[in-house]
Write a sequence for this structure.
């Protein structure tokens, strides 16, 4: 499932194709939306905006298209006429003069006035957007002190887009590892120093993944492994998808668990409940 970094890169690709350009033709594959094709064809695309794991297309005249890829949706940007050979269903096509932006398989698509987006159920509940350019570490850290989150486990919280938006399943394992925290800990049980570490790790791991196209591992280590011939899928992460392999830092075998049906990877040597933290003072 794409997470914030992947959605933001898709949004940039779609923006290069259609943002600031006239959408010569707009086509919706879902019958319930078909009538909007004629309505939006010929209008300029004012902006393409990623929000959490959703992508918004704002058309001139005040109409927006909301899309959420869920598990299967995928964007393709192609030269005009170069429709890819795929068995997937085309759900939205936006043709500009120089490029086509095509959304396949997604079914969570809505057309609505831009002014109503603030009341959209998904957008209205989004938490701090880790990849929004204006988001600061202080904002993320403040979110970690919000009373409504304190009784929940870190494993559950880090998948909740109402807490930190843009973080998803692989980033959850990686951020917890970097912060040296066990997934079952409740947010309210963390020391201020541990919350500092979690805020920093959540923001930095997510942003690094966006910058590096998916590398959450230490960048020097990743470069060293790459030079040694290790493939991308094996050097990109600290712990995610590394069950049974040794922790890069301490050698402990990486364990796999599942929370809410989603895989979660941990190193028992580096992540102990109430154990080591970044601070030299450490937790009590
Ligand atoms: Zn370790």
């Amino acid at each position: 499932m794409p997470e914030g970094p992947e959605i933001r890169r898709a949004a940039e690709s779609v923006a290069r194709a259609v943002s600031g350009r006239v959408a010569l033709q707009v086509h919706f594959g879902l019958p319930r939306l078909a009538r909007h094709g004629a309505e939006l064809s010929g209008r300029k695309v004012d902006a393409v905006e990623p929000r959490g794991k959703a992508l918004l297309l704002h058309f001139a005249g005040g109409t927006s298209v909301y899309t959420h890829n869920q598990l299967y949706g995928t964007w393709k940007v192609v030269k005009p006429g170069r429709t890819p050979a795929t068995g997937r269903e085309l759900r939205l096509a936006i043709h500009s003069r120089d490029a086509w932006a095509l959304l396949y398989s997604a079914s969570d698509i809505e057309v609505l006035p831009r002014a109503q987006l603030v009341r959209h159920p998904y957008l209205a509940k989004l938490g701090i957007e880790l990849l929004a350019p204006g988001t600061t570490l202080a904002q993320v850290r403040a979110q970690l002190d919000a009373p409504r989150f304190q009784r929940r486990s870190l494993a559950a919280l880090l998948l909740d887009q109402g807490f930190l938006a843009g973080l998803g399943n692989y980033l959850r394992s990686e951020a917890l590892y970097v912060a040296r925290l066990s997934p079952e800990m409740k947010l309210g049980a963390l020391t201020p120093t541990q919350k500092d570490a979690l805020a920093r790790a959540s923001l930095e791991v997510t942003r690094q993944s966006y910058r590096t196209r998916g590398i959450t591992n230490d960048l020097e280590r990743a470069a060293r492994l790459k030079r040694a011939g290790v493939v991308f899928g094996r050097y990109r992460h600290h712990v995610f998808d590394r069950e049974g392999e040794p922790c890069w830092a301490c050698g402990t075998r990486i364990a796999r668990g599942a929370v809410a049906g989603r895989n979660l990877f941990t190193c028992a040597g580096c992540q102990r409940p109430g154990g080591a933290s970044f601070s030299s003072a450490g937790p009590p």
Remarks:
- Residues 192-212 form the longest helix (21 residues).
